[in-house]
Amino acid sequence: MSQVNRLATGGRVDRSQPVTFTFNGQTYQGFAGDTLAAALLANGVDIVGRSFKYSRPRGIVAAGAEEPNAVLQIGSTEAAQIPNVRATQQALYPGLVATSTNGWPSVNTDMMGILGKVGGKMMPPGFYYKTFMYPQNLWLTYEKYIRKAAGLGRSPTEVDPDSYDYMNQHCDVLVVGAGPAGLAAALAAARSGARVILADEQEEFGGSLLSTRETLDGQVASEWVDEVVAELAGMANVTLLPRSTVNGYHDHNFLTIHQRLTDHLGEVAPMGMARQRMHRVRAKRVVLATGAHERPLVYANNDVPGNMLADAVSTYVRRYGVAPGKQLVLSTNNDYAYRVVLDWLDAGLQVVAVADARSNPRGAWVEEARARGVRILTGSAVVEARGSKRVTGARICAIDVTALKVTSPGEVLDCDLIVSSGGYSPVVHLASHLGGKPTWREDILAFVPGDGLQKRECAGAVNGVFRLGDVLADGFEAGVKAAVEAGLSPVEGSLPATEARHEEPAIALFQVPHDKPTARAPKQFVDLQNDVTAAGIELATREGFESVEHVKRYTALGFGTDQGKLGNINGLAIAARSLGISIPQMGTTMFRPNYTPVTFGAIAGRHCGALFEPKRYTAMQSWHLQNGAEFEDVGQWKRPWYFPKAGEDLHAAVARECLAVRNAVGILDASTLGKIDIQGPDAREFLNRVYTNAWTKLDVGKARYGLMCKEDGMVFDDGVTACLADNHFLMTTTTGGAARVMEWLEIYHQTEWPELKVYFTSVTDHWATMTLSGPNSRKLLAEVTDIDLDKDAFPFMSWKEGQVGGVPARVFRISFTGELSYEVNVQADYALGVWEKIIAAGQKHGLTPYGTETMHVLRAEKGFIIVGQDTDGSVTPDDLNMGWCVGRTKPFSWIGWRGMNREDGLREDRKQLVGLKPIDPNQVLPEGAQLVFDPKQAIPMQMVGHVTSSYMSAALGYSFAMGVVKGGLKRIGERVFAPLVDGSVIEAEIVSSVFYDPKGERQNV
Amino acid sequence: MNAINVYKQRPDAAQGESPLYHAGLHELAGKGPKHAGVSLREKKLLGHLTLRGDADDAAFASAVEQATGLALPAALAVVSAGDQSLQWLGPDEWLLIVPSGTEFAVEQKLRAALADQHISVVNVSGGQTLLELSGPNVRQVLMKSTSYDVHPSSFPVGKAVGTHFAKSQLVIRHTGEDTWELVVRRSFADYIWLWLQDASAEYGLAIEA
Amino acid sequence: MLHIFCPHCGELRSEEEFHAKGQAHIPRPLDPAACSDAEWGDYLFFRDNPRGIHHELWVHAAGCRQYFNATRHTVTYEILETYKIGEKPRFTAAGGAEPQAVDQGVTA
Lengths: 1005, 209, 108
Description:
The structure holds three protein chains of three kinds.
Chain A: E1 14-23, E2 26-32, H1 36-42, E3 49-50, E4 57-58, E5 71-74, E6 82-86, E7 96-100, H2 113-122, H3 127-131, H4 139-150, E8 164-176, H5 180-191, E9 196-199, E10 215-216, E11 219-220, H6 221-233, E12 238-241, E13 244-250, E14 254-260, E15 276-288, E16 292-294, E17 307-309, H7 310-320, E18 327-332, H8 338-346, E19 350-356, H9 364-371, E20 376-378, E21 380-386, E22 393-400, E23 405-406, E24 411-414, E25 417-421, E26 424-426, H10 429-432, E27 439-441, E28 446-448, E29 456-458, H11 468-485, E30 525-527, E31 532-533, H12 534-542, H13 548-555, H14 568-579, H15 583-586, H16 600-604, H17 621-626, E32 630-634, E33 637-642, H18 650-663, E34 665-669, E35 674-679, H19 683-690, E36 703-709, E37 715-725, E38 728-733, H20 738-752, E39 759-762, E40 767-773, H21 777-784, E41 798-804, E42 807-813, E43 821-827, H22 831-842, E44 847-849, H23 852-861, H24 897-900, E45 911-918, E46 930-931, E47 945-953, E48 958-966, E49 975-979, E50 985-991
Parallel strand pairs in A: 1-7, 8-9, 8-15, 9-12, 15-29, 17-25, 18-19, 18-25, 19-20, 34-44
Antiparallel strand pairs in A: 1-2, 3-4, 5-6, 5-7, 10-11, 13-14, 14-15, 16-26, 21-22, 22-23, 22-24, 27-28, 30-31, 32-33, 34-40, 35-38, 35-39, 36-37, 37-38, 40-43, 41-42, 42-43, 45-48, 45-50, 46-47, 47-48, 49-50
Helix pairs in contact in A: 5-6, 5-11, 7-8, 8-9, 12-14, 18-23, 21-22
Chain B: H1 25-28, E1 38-43, E2 47-52, H2 58-68, E3 78-81, E4 84-90, E5 93-98, H3 103-113, E6 120-123, E7 128-134, H4 138-145, E8 160-165, E9 168-176, E10 179-185, H5 189-200, E11 205-207
Parallel strand pairs in B: 1-11
Antiparallel strand pairs in B: 1-7, 2-5, 2-6, 3-4, 4-5, 7-10, 8-9, 9-10
Chain C: E1 3-6, E2 11-14, E3 19-23, H1 37-45, E4 53-59, E5 67-73, E6 79-84, E7 91-92, E8 95-96
C-alpha cells in the first residue's frame, strides 16, 4: 500500500527521494521533506493513538506545535528512545521508527476501549482526586495500570549516545518566527546593521507563506521567502537558526532556544556533531512574530479521526501534497477558513458542504467558493461528527449563536473529513512568560499580548493582525522599531504587493450547541490530549471551581505536552459562559516556559559525565594516581583518602597509616587548604576583628591557631595564620571554606571597615603544601633542607624560610596530628619534584603517605575539631571547650563576641563537645547517631546530642568518638546511649575529647 | 624593608611543572588536524604578580609605570609591551605577567617605586597559567563556554574580562584578532583543558608546543 | 537570568557572575556591647521582605570581586539602579528619580 492520500502533484516534498519508515511495526514510505505526520496521513493512517482517559481512537488534527494527538515514541534502539515527539514537528528520515505513545496493547484494538465507552461515567473530572485518594494504599495498585494505559511515553533506560551543547548568543534584535511578519522584521533589522538572530521551529523558514494560496508581487509566496532568506544568509550580522524553538522568555530579555541540529537526519547524530543545542540569548530587543493557532470548534464527537483544523488541511494539501480524505465538510465562523475549500477544490477533491455560523457571509473567499459551486449552509454548524474510527458523516444543523440553540433538525451529510475553524488564537506564550497578562480583543475574538516588562515588539498574527499585507507591514515596522531601540538607524524598505480582497469579521462561536444538553450530548472535546470535555468544564464550574487556574487543575485542561495550545481558549470560553461572566473576566491561565518540551540532553548540554562538575587537583595528583590512592571529594577537590596496599581495605590501610605517623613519619598532601596573603599596616587589627583570639602580640616568625565566628557567635572556620613580617600575614582556612572566608574578609573590608589599610589575595593555588608528621619527621626533613631544625632554633608554632629539595620553601612547624610536624610550602610548579625527593629520602625513616581519613583519625585522637563535621553552625567556641581561643578582653568588639554573649549562648545546658568512649572497645559509634541519657524511655526519646566524629584507633587500641551532649562538659564520667535503627544500643562513657597525649608533649619535642 | 616578607620563590635550577604538565602538551604538538579551527598553547611558568593599590592616587599610577614601563590600565583593559603585560582585575587590583624568573626582581622594583604607599604585591606564579587560543573558531568555543559577549564589537582586542566559564571562573583576554588568552587557576586547569578539548572538537584542535 | 550592571566594571553582566548577599544598608552597630539582645537580634536576623523596591547587596564574584548595591523590584525583577558601597540609592519605596538609561544600571 503506497501513499493512498498522496496527491499526484504539488507540495514541497522531493518525490525523487522516497523515505522508508515504520509506525507501530508496519513499514511505510514517504518523501524527503515530509513531516512524520504528513507521511502518516499520506499513507492513510487514521489512528495514531488512544486517548488518555477514555481510550478513544485519535488521529492527526493539526500540522504544528499545537498537535495534541500525534505525540509519538521515536527510536529503533533502547538508547535512542525519545518520548512525546509531535509527529507534526518531526522531519521524516530514512529508517525512522515510531510507535504510539499510548494504546495498550494496540491502537486499533485497544483493550481499554470497552472501558472507555463507559469510562465517561467512571472517570469524571477530579476522578483522581475523588477516587484514588481513598483508600490511599490502593493507589499503588491502580497506578500501575492507569499509568500503563495512559501512556505518558517512556524514557530510555540506556545511556544516550548523543551529545548536546550550549551556545551563548548576544544580539541587538532576536526575531522569533520566520513567517511573513518575522521575515519582514528580520529584514528591516538586519538592513539597519543590527546583530540579528532569526529563529524558527520549522524545517524551513517561511511559516504560512510555504502553504498559502495568496501571492506576493503576483508570484507564489515562497519565492519571496527564498529571496529574503538568501539576502539574510548573506549578511555577516545575521544568524539564522532553523529547527530552533524559542522556548522561554526569561528575565531581562534572556531567551532560550532549543535547536535540533541533526534530528532531521536520523535518530543518532553523525559522528562529531552535537544532536541538539541550547542557545542562551541575551537580546537588546525581541520581535515576537509567533503567529496564531487556529482554534477548532467544539462539537459532538469532534475527536473521531477525520476531524481536523481547516488551516492544517490546507498545509497538508499545499505544502506536502497530501489530502487526508476525499469528501470534505467545513464548519466555520470566519472568512479565512474558506481557503481550505478552495485548496481542496484545486486538488480536484470534493467539498460536500460548508456550514458557516454567520447568517449572510459575503467575503471575497466566500464568494469565490460559492462561485465554484460549493454548497454553503449559512447560520449553521456541524453539531456532531459520525463514525468511530474514522469520520463517516457530519450532522449539520441551523443554530442560534446568541441563544446557543440548535434551531433545525438538520441533515447528515456523508463525508470522511470534517474541518473546523473557530478563529485564530495568537501565540501569546512567550509574550506572557514573565507574567504579562494577555488582553482580550472582542473585535477579533482573541487574546493578544498584554503589556509586559519585556523589551519586545509583537508583529503579525500574534498581534491580532491577520491580513497578509498588514502582517508584512507590521513585521517590517516592528523590525525597524526594534533596531532603533537597540541604537541603530532606521531603514526604509519596500514590501511585496499583496492581493486586495473584501473580508468580513468572524462571529463568536466556541462550543457548538447540540439538541441535547451538554452533559447528555455525545462528548464534545475541548482538550483532546487530556480528554477534557465541555461537560467536564461545566461540571467543574457547578462544583464551585471558578478561577481559571482551579478549573485547569480540576479538569486537567491545558496540561500535558501541548499545554492547552488547542483547547485552552475554548475551555475558558465555556467556563466563562457557564459562570455567566465574560472571557476577559475569566482570563487565561499562566503561561510558563517551555513553549514545547525540551529534551533533558539539551538542558544538560556538556555538563555531564567527566564535565559534570570541575574537579580540582593539586600539583601532586599524578603521584597520587601512580601510587594507588583512593580519592575523597572535598568540595570540588579530589584529595587522597587513603593509599591502600595490595589486599588492604579502608580500615586496614588507615590503621597502618595511623601507626606509621604515630611511630615513624607520614606525609600528607595539604595543598587544598585555603591560603590568603594579607598585607597592609592594619592587617593585624583586621585579624583581631575577624578571629576570636588576639593577634596583637604575634611576633614575626610565629604562627597561631585561630577560630572565626559569624556575628551570631557560632564557629564557621578555623586555621593557622603566620606573621611573615610586621605588615604581612599568611592565613590558612579549611579546604571547603577557602572561597567563603575570602568573601567574608572582603565583605567586612569593603562594606564595614574600608578605612583599614589591608589587602587580601588568594594564594591557595600558588603554594603547594606537604605535611611531614611523626617522630621521625625532623630527621627526614633534615636530609632535604638547609634550615636549622634544632628544637630551640625552630620551635613549635613558628616558621622558617629555606631550601627544601633544592626549592625555596616556607616551612611551618604546626601540627594537626599531635606529632612533631612540619608543613612544607613551595611554589606549586616545583612541588612534585620536592615531594618525590622527600619520598625518596623517607625510605629509611619509614615514611608513609597518608590520606584524609588517617588525618581525620589522628586529629580526633587529639580532640582537634573539623569545622563542618564537629560543628554545624550552632556551636560556639565555648561549646567546643575552646574558651582558651576567645579573646575576652580585646578592645574591639570582634565578630562573634556580641553574638556568643546572648542569653542563649551562655546557657549551661548547651550541647557541648566531649569525647565518647564506647564501653565495648570494638564497637564504633555511627557518626550522626543520636544520643540519649536513658535508653529505656518510651519513644519518642528525648535526644540530648549526637556523634560528630567516630573512629577505631590503632594507636589507642579501642574505638572512640567525639560528639555534642547537653551540658556534656559537666558530665565527664557519665554514660550516654546511642539507640540505633536496628534496635541495638551502644553505650559510651563521656570523657575528655583529648584521647591521645593529653599533655601535648609529642608535638613539642 | 621588613614590613613585608619578600621572598624569592622560584628555584634557579629545578624543573617546573606547569598546571597542564600532566597533559603532555609537548607530545601532542603537531599531531592535530592540518586545518584546525582552534590552536592551543600553554604559556607556562611565567611570572604572575597581583598588584593592589589606589588607582585614584596619581603617584601610584606613575610609580607603577616607572617600575614596569606599562601605563596602569583602566577598567577591563590589558596593556602589554614585549613579554610583559599589565591587566586591570578590579578597581584596586591588577595582574602583572612577566617573563619566568623575573618576578622577584620586578616585585622588588615595584616595592621600591611604591615605597611610601599602601600597596600589596603578591607572587601568584604557581597558582595560575596562561592558555593561548588562536584560530578562526576560537570565538565559537568561547561562545559555548561563557555568557559574556565575545563579539568584537563588545570584546575588542585589548580587553580583558573576568567571567564565568563552563562551570568555573577565569579571565579572558583578547590579544589579537583571532588570538585570545585564558588566565586559569592551577587547580581548575585540568577541567578547563577537558572542556576546551570537548568544545573545540567539532572545529579541530591543534596543540602548539 | 538577570542582567546586572556592575558599577565597577561599567557594563552589564550575567547573573551567574554574581553572588547575592541579602539586604543592603544594614550597618554593623558601632558598639555591639551597647545593644540589647533584642537589638542585636534585629541586626542579625530580621530582614525586610517587601513587595516592590528592595535594596540588595551583591558581589561581582567572577569579575572584579567588588561588593555593590542594587535597587531591585521584587515583583518585576527590574533592576532600577546599581551603586557603589557608600553611595545612596536614587530610587526608594517612597519614590525616586526618573528611570535611567541602561548604562546607568537599569535592566528589565
